[in-house]
Structure formats: structure tokens, C-alpha cells
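#struct-pred

JT: dropping the chains for the assembly here, can someone run the whole complex?
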Amino acid sequence: MLPTFKRYMSSSAHQIPKHFKSLIYSTHEVEDCTKVLSVKNYTPKQDLSQSIVLKTLAFPINPSDINQLQGVYPSRPEKTYDYSTDEPAAIAGNEGVFEVVSLPSGSSKGDLKLGDRVIPLQANQGTWSNYRVFSSSSDLIKVNDLDLFSAATVSVNGCTGFQLVSDYIDWNSNGNEWIIQNAGTSSVSKIVTQVAKAKGIKTLSVIRDRDNFDEVAKVLEDKYGATKVISESQNNDKTFAKEVLSKILGENARVRLALNSVGGKSSASIARKLENNALMLTYGGMSKQPVTLPTSLHIFKGLTSKGYWVTEKNKKNPQSKIDTISDFIKMYNYGHIISPRDEIETLTWNTNTTTDEQLLELVKKGITGKGKKKMVVLEW
Amino acid sequence: MLPTFKRYMSSSAHQIPKHFKSLIYSTHEVEDCTKVLSVKNYTPKQDLSQSIVLKTLAFPINPSDINQLQGVYPSRPEKTYDYSTDEPAAIAGNEGVFEVVSLPSGSSKGDLKLGDRVIPLQANQGTWSNYRVFSSSSDLIKVNDLDLFSAATVSVNGCTGFQLVSDYIDWNSNGNEWIIQNAGTSSVSKIVTQVAKAKGIKTLSVIRDRDNFDEVAKVLEDKYGATKVISESQNNDKTFAKEVLSKILGENARVRLALNSVGGKSSASIARKLENNALMLTYGGMSKQPVTLPTSLHIFKGLTSKGYWVTEKNKKNPQSKIDTISDFIKMYNYGHIISPRDEIETLTWNTNTTTDEQLLELVKKGITGKGKKKMVVLEW
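RK: done, full complex below.
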């Protein structure tokens, strides 16, 4: 059983909250960005009776959130005096899932109802908070159908994986058409394989060499719908490319799209496996190495290399995010996309008992902790 | 005075030739590709009275011609028995300028006249020859207005430089709009600067560091129309990029296009200087290093990286080559593009006195020789 939203619903729903608490920052620090965070209790300046008030259910701690604290992320919120600070400050966090606990009487509430679960339409709204206040329903997307973990991560990983598959290639689902991607164990890559499978597109996922390769590959293939998983050493092996790859791909295979979130040699090797005049999209650079492309791929094979940035794409075209979430939810309801909960380690913020000091420590642990993706889940 | 075509016109024009002589190859050899070349005398199989017969005036020895002999070039002519060889063979060379010496009576001659100077529309026709035979005027482009050196090189370097500037960006010639390119001393780069200048686009040309930097930069700026020349060390210098570059570019500058024929660090450094959502076209890889692109340029700056290949582009769309040559000739006639003769070392093939052995040595020298671009000029 997935945790239902009910479990997180407060008995005090439908009331205007009084105690606002947010994780805020005024400055940036590259080395140890947890230093710039503090917990701030404040009274919002808005007239809450005329606002959409949201109770936070969960927020993930994403790499981009951390990069924002470090001051190295190109997209950032405006810092304001809204939280009664001495210096202009912003609330950390860019995505999360919320429950509507109070609505205005006018048209600005749109079709929202009390108890609806929503996510912010845009990044930079600040999500590391117990409550948030919005003025218009058009800045929110309803996600009642999604479980907690899917809803809290759909804006970044969900949209990224979905749009990478859906928005660039005019696929023929009757053909033998493939995506090749590196970092095949990442959260986004798992969305990619599931969305691709649902659309009749095959995926070749490259993962790092490891002792339990077969076991990991089996999970990616059986649970997440990867068509075939290969290792980075196979990816980089010219003999493999010549002799084995064509058997994996089958007859009349077209490898039309490469998805790169690693860079360096891995990016060159997935690009080499593309058909002529194909596309590589880069959306991450885990290896810290630049994207590396043999000149001949550009000149003689017509390769196009572009970037994908979920924040900018959906800022430019908010409707595309609304449409993506709608399609994502349909696929989720059909069982084509499973919850990412197994990939996530939850950190519990009990809004009744967790002290400010404990909350700060909790979030710092989420920022610095290794292993699974971290998500703060609020208990009410 | 540029050498005129008159000088190369034969007294025997308007006659059907009897002695065909071509540099041909049947096999390939990477290490020393001159080994596969031989001089072949033959009688063409076509009915020459029903053909367009061309006398060769000059042909350059291009890197792509050499790569074809090596067997490492993705575009290659079909090998045939047309030249009375034991093994199927092809004539070397992909561009050159010819004079029409015999025409058929029918419509296949189009608007060609005896004495017209022409170039082949497509690559892979074989140009290292004293005569060539074509069946239709639609396979030829008239270039009567160009001097020998411009005409013999317009298919590769001329088209490349012209199309790189003209075919990808919708320029605003009233704006402060820039192209940045590396290998600023190359033949193509010199076409780029001249075409750009004629179109009201500014060029920032990067050249390798050298003792006589100022002298070389001055020639590129004064003679070839580069707006500003900088060194690779300046290109790679972050302080230069921050403090000096904006002064060079001026107010409201837009660096909209990067042209890369070097690769490696140089490609990363020119790409960094582009505005957001800009384009880098790679058309060569002199450093033998792959195209290297910081991940952030793709993701956060919206960089698109593509390739340019003159052969494929004009094969796909022959009309675009015809249009390019037409525009090139107009610009040449206005004096916006000068002859590349100063960049070229000529090797003379006297069709009356040069023996086959001497001819082969001449061409081998052209293939292996360092320094200036080599062109074989035929004397009749």
C-alpha cells in the first residue's frame, strides 16, 4: 500500500493557520551551504482570508535546491522582507506537495476545493515550509490522483523524464525505435523507461559497472521497464558496439534519442550509437566532465546536441507543464508509472513536536546525507 | 592582376579531345595514401559528340580528397571500369574548375556555351584529370565571373564559409551582431569574415598564439574584414572574458553564432562567449580533440551544437548550392570577397610536356606538402 494522502491530512484542515515556519536563507555559501539556512517563525503579510492557504505534506531535497543555497544555480527566487527578517530572504525549496486548507470566497480559488492536493506551477516559490500562501489557483496544479512521493517529485524528476521522452521526437510506436540513456539507475532515467515503455518506445539504459550488475539490471528491466541495460564498459567498447549492439537492438532499429546526464566519455559513447541526424539531450553532468562529442558525429552523422532544463522550459511555457502533469497522472492511473517511494528516504517533520533546532538538523541531514534521495514528510 | 581564364584557354578549344588522362585509385591506404594513386590514360566510353566535354583548368588538393584516398571519408565515389582498369577505379578529387570544349546538339547542353567556365554541382565526380565528360548541364554550374583560384575552391571552402554565415541565423544587420570563430587564419574563416562583413555582421576570430600575432591579426582585420582578432590564450582566459570582451563587443552585443573547426578547449571557449539559446556549428576538428561543451552551456544557456558538412548539405539540396554560388559571385563582383590566390601554392601540370611520372610526383607533392593550400593548375 502506498501511503495515502488521508494519512497526512490534518484534523485542523479548513482553518486558517497562525504559526508559519519556513527554512529561509539570505546569503549563499558554496562549501557548506547548510550554514546559510535558518528556521524562521513569522506571520505572513497577506490577508489570509483572501488567499489560498496550503499546508505542506512533503518536499524533496533536490540537487537544484542545494545549488540554489550555494548560489551557483542560474534560477533563483527573489529575496524579500516578507518573512520579517533583517535582510531580504527567500524560502528554500522548489517543489513539494501541499493540501488546500483555506480558500478565498472570490474567483481566484478557481476549481480548488478544501482538501485538494496541489503542487506549485513554477519553481522558486519556496517549499521548505509548514504552510504556504498563494493568491491564485492558476499558480497551482491539482495532483489528487498521485501518491505522496510521486506528487512531491513530479515537478522536477517527473516532468523531466516525461518531457525528455515526449517533447522532442515524433515517435513511431510501431517501429523498432530506441532511446539510449546513461545514468540508468537515476530517478529521472526510471521515469524515462516507464514513460517510453508506455508509449511503445524501447530504452537502452547504460549504468556504471558494479558487482551486482545483473541484479540491478534486472530491477531496471522488470520493475522500471528498461528494454535492455548495459554497463558503461560495454557502452565504451567498440567491439560491443560492432558485434553485440545490433543483436540487442534487432532489425531495422532506429536509435533516435540519447539522454545524457553524465557527460565525458559516457556522453560520447551514447552519442555514437545514435542513427544519423539524431538528437542528444543533456540534462545533467554527474561525472563533472564536459559533454564530449567526436567531431565526426557532428559533421558526418548530423548529430544535434542540445540541453534540457525543466525550470526554464516550464517557465517559458507553463501550459506545457500543466499538460505534462495531466498526461503523467493518466499514465500513473493506468499503472504505467509507479511511485518512486522505494528510491526515497523520508525524514519526518512532526509539526507538533519537532523543535526548530531539530527541524534545522533534519534538513541539514537531508542536504548532506548520501545514498537515497531525501524527502521531508510533514506529520500533522 | 588576377590570372584570367583567357590565359588558360587552349587554342584547340571547341574540339573533341582524344587523350584522356586521370589520377585514379582502386584501393585505399591510410598511412601513405599517395601509394594508391596512379596516372591512367584511357578512352572514355561515352559518345563524346553527344556529351559535354570539359577541359580542366585547375583543381585544389583538399583534405577531404586525401581522406577519400585514405578510405576514411564517409562520402566516396562509386568505383567503375570506365577507365579501362583491371579493378574498379575512381578518379580522385572533388572540386575544380573546367572549360567547356565540346557540346552536344540537343537540349542537354542547357545554356552552356563553348568557352564557359564551370564547376561540378556535386562532389565525387573526379576532378584530378585533364578532361571530364558530363551528360547534362544540370550537373554543372557556370562560374565565368570568378578568377581561377576562387572558381576552383568555391565548392568546398567558398560554399562552406558562405553557408555557415548565411544559412542558420536570421541576422539583423542593424544590430550589433557577432560571429565568433576559431582557426581564424583558415581559408574558410577568411571567407566567413568577408561574407559576414558584407552582410553587416561582425566577426571575432580566434587564432593560435604566435610571435607575429599583431601582424597576422592586422592582415585578417584589414584584408579579410575580421572585426577583431584575439588569441587562443585570450579565448581561454576567464579574466579576458569578464573584463575585456565586453569592451570589444560594445553595447547590446549579441554573439549569436560560433563556428568551430578546432575542437577541444577552443570549442568550449568560443561556445562560452555565445548569448543564450545560440548555435555552435562544427565543420572541422584540427586539434583532433572532440568537441567539448561544459554541461551548463547546454542546460542553463540553451546552447545547440550541430555539425556542418558541405558535401551532404549540397547533395541533399543541390539548389542551395546553386543559390550559394550565385550569391557568392555577386559578392565577389562587388569586391566583397577577394581571390584566395595568396593562400595557394600552385603546382603546374603542362598538358603538353609533363610526363605521367612527373604528374604523379607533382600530385604526391601536393598531397604531402606542408604550408599553403596546394592547387594543380593545368597549362594547355
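JT: nice. The interface with chain B takes residues 74, 263, 268, 282-285, 290-309, 312 of chain A (CB under 8 Å). Confidence is low (pLDDT under 50) at residues 6-13 of chain A.
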